[in-house]
Amino acid sequence: MSDRTLRMVGLGALVAFALLVPFLFGPYRVGQFTLVLAYAVAALGLNLLVGYNGQISLGHGAFFAIGAYTAALLIEKAGVHYLLTLPAAGALTFVLGYLFGVPALRLRGLYLALVTLGLAIATPQLIKRFDTITEGTQGMTVEQPESPSWLPFADDQFLYLLALLVAVIMFALAWSLMRSQVGRAVKAVRDGEIPASTLGINLASTKTRVFALSAGYAGVAGAMYVLAIGFVAPEAFTVTISLAFLAAIVVGGLATIVGAVFGALFIEFVPVYASDVNDALTGVIYGGVLILFMYLLPDGAAGLLRRLRDLVVRRRAVEKGRRPAVASPGPRVPAGRT
Amino acid sequence: MERFIQVIVDGIATGSIYAALALALVLIFRSTGVVNFAQGEMAMFSTFIAWGLYAGGVPLGLAVLTTLVLSFVAGLVIERGLIRHFEGGEELTLVIVTLGLFILLNSLAGWIWGFGNRSFPSLFGDSTFTLGGVQLSVESIGIVAVLIGVVGVLFLLFQRTKIGLAMRAAALNPESSGLVGVRVGRMLMLGWGLAAALGAIAGVLVAPRLFLDVNLMGSVLIYAFAAAALGGFDSAIGAVIGGWVIGISENIAGTYVDFIGADLKILVPLAIIFVVLLLRPSGLFGTREVARV
Q1: Which of B90, B99, B278 is closest, CB to CB, to A243?
Q2: B138: Cβ–Cβ under 8 A, 6 or more apart, which residues?
Q3: pLDDT (tens digit, 0 to 9) for every residue of chain A, 338 residues total?
Q4: Is residue A208 a contact partner of residue A98, using CB atoms and an 8 Å limit?
């Protein structure tokens, strides 16, 4: 089995599982997986920024919140069809991300982390401050999509499959973008700003665009979240959610596309089980995991899988008495970064 | 007018607390090039220890002193046991590790002491006196005095002692200092220990003004960041002046600008960080960075 087939088999298994989820589990569990998809899109967006472009944002919870409130307000106050809220949330956060990014990204990565951390801390207060629009602390109930009568699905199954469709589109977009010329420029900026600029890459504009794109992903994810939960309140968007997204990409694997899925599974299911033991356990696990992964497994779950795959491929090659095919041509980060 | 002076004095007092935490950030940044996102949570943890001792019957002064010593040791241990493995690595890795520490300490404190809030007594009591028509609290004066004392001690340590010289050398050029016999690793540990103790001071000073809970230092950390960014991340005097500027402008904006009020004060340091970094990225007193290829 070659490297490529092995990868295809893995991806096929993941897609098959994702398609079977709504038929294997009950409505409650399916709802959780719908949230996983929303988180996966947000984590993917953050990974484009952090993993591929080397910028640090600790404030993606803010864009997630803006996406969520955009969708909620459009549905509840303006009566817009729910399908339109996804692109609307994405477009608005893209623009806001761009505006925020223009000044912020002229700063070095470290300062960006500071400013965005401040943004994350201010988000719940800002939502409460504008309570005439956002209904403040009490939050808003949002009507959830119902399965059309011509489809043989229950509402929860429909919602999940809808989220899956959106997620697949977002993942395909990110995947093809990172393989393109744009993606190479994005990675070149991460690997060395000065060399990249001597190659004619416009640093500020590249970074700003990646930031905007990444914010747009968070916005779409926020809208998916509202459709999945049917409720928004400021308490959902504290600094914890921004840090959870960061934990997700570290666990899943920096600069990997599929890692976002593993990371999203992690941040959805760990709190569910951990809160049975102690309210503080989730945080202890997030914190511990961030440190341990950077120490032991800096390329995350996706990196671990890749290494296992390399192992299998190499062993089979040795058995057949020939040298292994090109081992792992994929992006190998951050082990190989300097 | 009296009210305005009052606002300024209050601003200097809170600004001194931000300055203390900003000094801790600067201390670590100067010696190891790390911006310690966990600085605030380390301070919060220390404050809880002081509270625990005090609640257990230890006199407040002694409880605070014990906490300072414990925090110092904890700082040494964190540097040696955790940060050392990542030093000299990528900025991103270090940011993630210190953020991990941030979440870990925050949750551990919640686990141990719960998520409720409690009141913390002031070291200086709550008496006030009037000077030229302006009412001043002993606490405000005490806070400023503590900060000035701390700055004095740090100045003497870094400028007048051999250890201070060695610490500066280790920060400036680790390799050469190692060759002339400076124990670079020890100096880095010392830097973290001092920063942790400084953070504890900031925590003990700020806790009586807010309520002590696990999120005590969340916004204080942002103010301290703003102070350090304003002053220049590698300048101690910059951190102090930055802290004062942030404290005063936060108080003025909170009092006189209706839109901001008490809720949105947090936007003030954010705006300041933005403006400073755009106009003068190395801060008012920082050294300009020159990149080499």
Answers
A1: B99
A2: B124, B125, B126, B127, B128, B129
A3: 577 788 888 888 888 898 888 888 888 999 999 999 999 999 999 999 998 988 888 889 999 999 999 999 999 888 888 899 999 999 999 999 998 887 766 666 677 888 888 888 888 888 888 888 888 888 888 888 888 888 888 888 999 999 999 999 999 999 999 999 889 988 988 888 888 888 888 888 888 899 999 999 999 999 999 999 989 999 889 888 998 999 999 999 888 888 899 999 999 998 888 888 888 898 899 999 999 998 888 888 888 888 888 887 777 666 665 554 444 444 444 443 43
A4: yes
Given the DSSP bridges, would you call strands B128-131 and B134-137 parallel, antiparallel or unpaired? Answer: antiparallel
Provide the sign of the torsion angle of the four alpha carbons A267, A273, A276, A278, taken in this order.
negative
Interchain proximity B93–A294, CB inside 8 Å: yes
Instruction: Walk me through the domains of chain A, giving residue ranges and CATH numbers.
Output: 3-319 (1.10.3470)
CB contact under 8 A, B92 and A125: no
Determine the distance in angstroms separating the CA of A284 from the nearest CA of chain B, rounded to an integer: 5
Residues of B with Cβ-Cβ distance to A282 under 8 angstroms: 107
Instruction: Calculate the CA dihedral of residues B269, B270, B274, B276 and round it to 10 degrees.
Output: 10
Contacts of A53 (CB under 8 A, 6+ apart): A186, A187, A189, A190, A206, A207, A210
User: What are the tokens at B289?
Assistant: 């960075």
The amino acid that residue A173 corresponds to is: L
Residue A233 has φ and ψ, to the nearest 5°, of: -150, 150
The pTM of the full predicted model, rounded to 2 decimals, is 0.86
The three-class DSSP label of residue B34 is: coil
Contacts of A169 (CB under 8 A, 6+ apart): none
**Which positions in chain B touch A114 (Cβ < 8 Å)?**
35, 222, 225, 229, 273
- Per CB-CB distance under 8 Å, the chain A contacts of B277 are 107, 111, 115
| ipTM field | 0.85
Cβ-based contacts of A195 with chain B (< 8 Å): 293
Q: Are B281 and B273 in contact (CB under 8 A)?
A: no
Domain positions in chain B: 2-122+133-217
Closest-approach residue (CA) in chain B for A125:
B263
Helices (H), chain B: 2-32, 39-55, 60-81, 91-113, 138-160, 162-172, 174-179, 184-206, 218-231, 236-256, 267-279
List the single best residue of B32, B34, B92 to mutate versus A (max A Cβ within 10 A). B92
